[in-house]
Amino acid sequence: MQIYLPIAELPISILMVLGLSGAVGFISGLFGVGGGFLLTPLLIFLDIPPAVAVATVAAQVAGSSMTGVLTYWRRRALDFKLGSVLVSGGIIGTILGVLFFNSMRRLGQLELVITLSYVTLFTFIGGLMLYDALRAALRVRAGKPVRRRRRAGTHPWWMGLPLRVRFYHSQLYASVIPIAILAVVIGFIGAVLGVGGGFILVPALIYFFRIPPAVVVGTSLFQILVTMTGATLLHAVTNQSVDMILAVLLLLGGVIGAQFGGRAARNLNVDSFRLLLALLILSVGLRFAIELLIPPSEPFSVVLPESAR
Questions:
Q1: Transmembrane ranges (predicted)?
Q2: Percent helix, strand and coil across the chain, each rounded to 5?
Q3: pLDDT digit string (tens) for 208-222?
């Protein structure tokens, strides 16, 4: 059973979209991360135009983040003060990202930029995660304790920069400058690649600012909700690339898959989580790298950039 996507301008199987989004939702529930960083490249592999894939997944990420934000808010595990700093920087990064996205689209280089960005980002992050997971596994097998990244009571230099603020709920007293810069980068990446950025933001807040994980996840979801909603609106207004029919199907399948993934997560070891996630990220990056090396079936294109139309 197929349905026509008016913005993507192609027919697609409803069962395929539901199955794909369900599988990504399962992985999201299994690993506790947003699925946008997997969903966007998978849609591109299904011949969805990159501009439509990025903008539509931004809408799906915003919708799926809403339930998480409400859940953590009820648990009082959301720092709105820290979240406001992250949102302020994220909005700036989102605006810059959409402007960059539109300029690359007008020049006809958007697909190349997205592909190179995914190869670079996934290779770097996946490589770090794989190294960290293997090192931890080898130390456990050798009977050695896992080393702490930093001794208690010590703080890195970036936390002592000017404009220090005390975030009571996050047990943090640090400069807002590095936090805002991190949020700008996450917002920019999210707008260009259609990812929530939680798989970068959560480890950064935990390892670089030593914020309790229970607070980090809810606060990260709050930032993702606001920035991805803004990115969706900007994409819809400036380049009309949000396909709401596709977004609804993705959201439906993702919600169902996440429920099963959350249940399956109880039966897996934490170290296995990290190793499998690292391999998954590296495999997607490798798939994009292969695409760069394979000659296109049509070396010339008759589609003109938007600036020439």
A1: 12-39, 51-73, 85-104, 110-131, 175-208, 215-238, 244-261, 273-294
A2: 70, 5, 20
A3: 888 877 788 778 888
Closest listed residue to residue 226, CA positions, set 114, 107, 66, 115: 66
**Weakest-pLDDT range from 129-133, 155-159, 295-299:** 295-299
Residue type, 33: V
For the segment 220-243, what is each residue's pLDDT rounded down to a tens digit?
Answer: 888 888 888 888 888 888 878 888
Residue pair 239/105 in contact (Cβ under 8 Å)? The answer is: yes
Residue 228 confidence (pLDDT): 83
CA pair distance 185, 114, nearest whole angstrom: 16
- H and E: helices and strands count for the chain: 10, 4
What is 11-38 written as a DSSP string?
EEEHHHHHHHHHHHHHHHHHHTS-SHHH
In terms of pTM, does the model score above 0.70? yes
Each domain of the chain, given as residue ranges in start order, spans 2-143+157-294
